[in-house]
Amino acid sequence: MKNKNLLLALVILSFAFIFSSCSDDQQAVNPTGPSWNTRDVPDITENGENPDETILSSETDNPSSSGFIYIQSNDAGLNSVLIYRQQSNGSLTLQATVSSGGNGTGGGLGNQGAITINENEKWLFAVNAGSNSVSSFRISNNGNLTLAHTMSTGGIRPVSVTSYRRLLYVVNAGSDNISGFRIGGGGTLTAIAGSMQSLSSTGTGPAQISFSPNGNFLYVTEKATDKITTFPVGNNGAAGSGTSVSSTGQTPFGFDIARDKYLIVSNAAGGAANQSSATSYSGLNAGNLSPVNGAVGNNQAAACWVAVTKYGRFAFVRNTGSDNISSYYVAPFGGLFLLHAAIPSEDAPTEIIVADNNIYVYALNSASHTISCYRRTILGNLNSIGTTTGLPSFATGIAAR
Predict the structure, then answer these.
(1) What distance in Å separates the CA atoms of residue 145 and residue 230, rounded to the nearest whole number?
(2) What residue spans define the domains of the chain?
(3) What angle is formed at CA 346 by the lines to CA 109 and CA 400, rounded to 5 degrees?
(4) How far apart are the two ends of the chain, measured CA to CA in Å?
(5) Which of these, 94, 163, 174, 277, is most buried using a 10 Å CB contact count?
(6) 36-400 has which CATH code?
(7) Can you give the pLDDT at residue 120?
(8) CB 239, CB 212: distance < 8 Å
(9) pLDDT score of 57
(10) Checking phi first, is residue 379 left (phi over 0); if not, alpha (psi -120 to 50) or beta?
(11) What residues contact 301, with CB distance under 8 A and at least 6 apart?
């Protein structure tokens, strides 16, 4: 009888050990994120209806759709925009270089979003950080650009620009403020009275500015203050006074919008090793940011730039300090889940973007002066498909059409 009881106890202990091991394996999918168990693991395929996944299985080896990638040179002399044609196999070919009518700085800007394309893809806008101005370009059907207007921002060292319908806003890092413009029919820019507003303080180190999807709010990340500042936008296009919230995660840097309602922000943590993270915020269209599931770590260094897939299910974060890319899944409720912590990249990676066809991903590398080209694969992974060389030394900003 004693032997039978001992055998039963051993069987129970064995099952307990096996169950515990399986649970630990599941939790290791996101080891540096919030505490969660197998019951909380989201279905990344979304019952086979995740549009960012299904497009991958529906495309051939060489997607038929191609497009254009735009990058700013930020030369200390005359600034320019480089136009790359995206081939069907994902490779890039330099098509043209167009002067912006302003100057760059010939140095790093610590920013995301130095150039942007409006929603109807007819206009491109670029900051000229060295001459305190912003430029507008008409985009032709063949991807070429025609300079339309260059206008003073009214501030010092503009580093990021955003547009919504006929409105354009920039954030000026040197003067810690934002300023707004109305976009005319021919691409002319007119300053909006009362649109210039201050950030939370001086020396804030702003990284990016962007409109909410509904156009009612502007958001600015402040690296030096660990804050995100929100500005309401009135019916006349003028921004009101800003309100700031402390970021969930140190050194908020770049961001992108997922599922049209969540703000996905990278947290560089001052560049400290193994301390980077990303945070998803709800309340984007209401001007009331709230972290969804905290700062989700990736055990990397200097997470600075963010790009989200077309349907907002996946976010890619470039880690400059550890020379790699992390990918996250964005759940329907906005929660972030780390999928791949360290997808290999080249030296000193900076900005990243998902192409318009939602298949290819392009990323700048400041040390090697190259563009890394990737093809998305299932479950948020990236496969390298080559490198484009000859990028200007201090290139910044990347946009896709």
Answers:
(1) 32
(2) 36-400
(3) 60
(4) 76
(5) 277
(6) 2.130.10.10
(7) 83
(8) no
(9) 78
(10) left
(11) 269, 271, 272, 273, 274, 275, 276, 319, 320, 321, 322
Q: What are phi and psi of 371, to 5 degrees?
A: -115, 120
Res 30: pLDDT: 38
pLDDT score recorded for residue 44: 93
Q: Which residues of 156-190 are buried (b: 16+ CB within 10 A; e: fewer)?
A: ebbbbbbbbeebbbbbbbebbbbbbbbbeeebebe
Q: Which two tokens stand for residue 394?
A: 């201090």
Q: How far is CA 382 from CA 316, 360, 362, 376, 379, in A?
A: 10, 9, 11, 5, 9
Task: Give every residue of the chain whose pLDDT is below 50, as ranges.
Answer: 1-39
Q: Mind giving me the DSSP string for 260-320?
A: TTEEEEEE-GGG-TT--EEEEEE-GGGT--EEEEEEEE-S-S-EEEEEE-TTSSEEEEEEG
8 SS3 class:
helix
Alpha-carbon torsion angle 95, 106, 370, 357, nearest 10: -60
User: CA 201, 213, 302, 94 torsion: positive or negative?
Assistant: negative
